[in-house]
Amino acid sequence: xxxxxxxxxxxxxxxxxxxxxxxxxxxxxxxxxxxxxxxxxxxxxxxxxxxxxxxxxxxxxxxxxxxxxxxxxxxxxxxxxxxxxxxxxxxxxxxxxxxxxxxxxxxxxxxxxxxxxxxxxxxxxxxxxxxxxxxxxxxxxxxxxxxxxxxxxxxxxxxxxxxxxxxxxxxxxxxxxxxxxxxxxxxxxxxxxxxxxxxxxxxxxxxxxxxxxxxxxxxxxxxxxxxxxxxxxxxxxxxxxxxxxxxxxxxxxxxxxxxxxxxxx
Length: 265
Hints:
- It comes from Alteriqipengyuania lutimaris.
- This is Transglutaminase family protein.
- This protein has 2 domains: 2-78 and 245-264, Sandwich (Immunoglobulin-like), CATH 2.60.40; 84-243, C8orf32 fold (Roll), CATH 3.10.620.
- The protein contains 4 helices and 14 strands.
- It has helices at residues 115-122, 127-141, 155-161, 166-179; strands at 2-12, 17-21, 31-40, 45-50, 57-63, 66-77, 143-144, 163-164, 184-190, 200-208, 216-221, 233-238, 247-250, 254-264.
- The strands form 4 sheets. A 4-stranded antiparallel sheet has the order 3-6-1-14, with no helix packed on it. Strands 4-5-2-13 form a 4-stranded antiparallel sheet, with no helix packed on it.
- Strand 7, helix 3 (155-161) and strand 8 (163-164) form a beta-alpha-beta unit.
- The longest helix is centred in the middle third of the chain and has 15 residues, at 127-141.
């Protein structure tokens, strides 16, 4: 089954302002890009650069006045589906070098504060079973409430408030996984059942790959329940939302329009 994506947004500036955009579907083996078309307003400067882990790309623009983005893509999901609970946890000394950085604290995910909590709440579980327990805990304890959080909301804030949007759910899963010594990262994505439709965010955790003796595999986790690995289309990954926002400005801007439509076809 293919997934069709159409997204657009526009912002205005009062003076020439640099912005870093990340909105396009990533062209990676786990999702076959069948078609893709992107339109950008002319800008004084525009440069495309690889995004983190070479998953997707970013676009630098220098905008002056109104700037518009339109993106259309059609994607076939090719990733391997596994039983998450069956995956074991890698011991730290067994981990490859690349995922180790996703054990560290980041701007929105201060994991070391939650080490005692995860031991108390999820003791007796490990690996994929621990991740399922974390996902289910966040899903049951949090209320999905648009407008209840903002750009400065951390996982610690969300833990106290017990409400938020997809980025807050993802930050909480990432934080509790890292506190459990499981590498975890933030994934910006599209998915067809997100309500209301918008850019979406989920977590991704690194566990033992049963198909290899000592290798690992990244597995997607969505505590909101609105997306599954079968229909998540990745845009990019990072330590948390600060690394993979669809729009990061380095000056004052006004986001005036945004529309996302994702469908199974």
